[in-house]
Amino acid sequence: MHFTESTRRRLNERKPRFGVLVTLLVSVILLMFMLKTCSSERIAVTSVSKPAGGDTLNVAIEYSPLGVMRQGDSLAGFGYEMINAIAKANHIPIKFTPIVALATTLEEMRAGRYDIVIAQIPMTADFKRFYRLSEPVCIDRQVLVQRLDSVSPRVSSQLDLGGKRVSVVAGSPAVERLLSLSREIGERIVIVEDSLYSQEQLFLLVASGEIDYAVVNYSLARQLSNGNERELDVSKDVSFSQFQSWAVNRNDSVVADSIDAMIRRFKASDDYADILSRYSLTPAR
Length: 285
Prior knowledge:
single chain; alpha/beta; D-Maltodextrin-Binding Protein, domain 2; 2 domains; six-stranded mixed β-sheet; three-stranded antiparallel β-sheet; 40% helix; 22% strand
């Protein structure tokens, strides 16, 4: 394969699987440090060991290009930039906690540790039964990631997924979608729920040949596969386009309502359009 230099570095860091764990741990520790030191005077970032009190917004944020990521000596990411802009406009201090295990984080939010979980979460009916979802922040869809030179059978349509082992982030809405798809095609899809890795890591495990198939959001897959279209295929849709949102703590309706109101106001601003443009995302109007 002939990957770009940035993707090649990610692949080298994540092979074998033990290397993935070590690299991921180091990355999250560095990210924690940067989240504490790269804040502005108006946006306080406190210790990540326990929830902040008072008016501070406790934010768990996925470690990915669409959540938060390191970019040189600074931080970037769609979710990170958007919540920072919202907090700045409303003079609200934030405490960030970077996360990779979505299922565990959602349970911790239920227990009151976080006010909001920023990750790639489609607004599905089943997910709404268990979590309160915020005002939508963008539109995206789920796609299959597979190698074009794989010895495994090529998936040309959703019907070909029957009997295949497909990896997804544990507890993510992709699990629900694949279960529905299994019923639709009349054949079982072997769903491998991975509790250790984010969508980005699963994408890279497919690229490195450790797993054959994974389901991730299209916007993330497009960014990671940029320049590598001859080696990786991300063109097979698993879902329709869906509103993407953040999960908020349903036990505090005042905070949840306030977050929705702030997101609605922000979506009417030029800053929202600018951030969407930088990450090539579709607006959720």
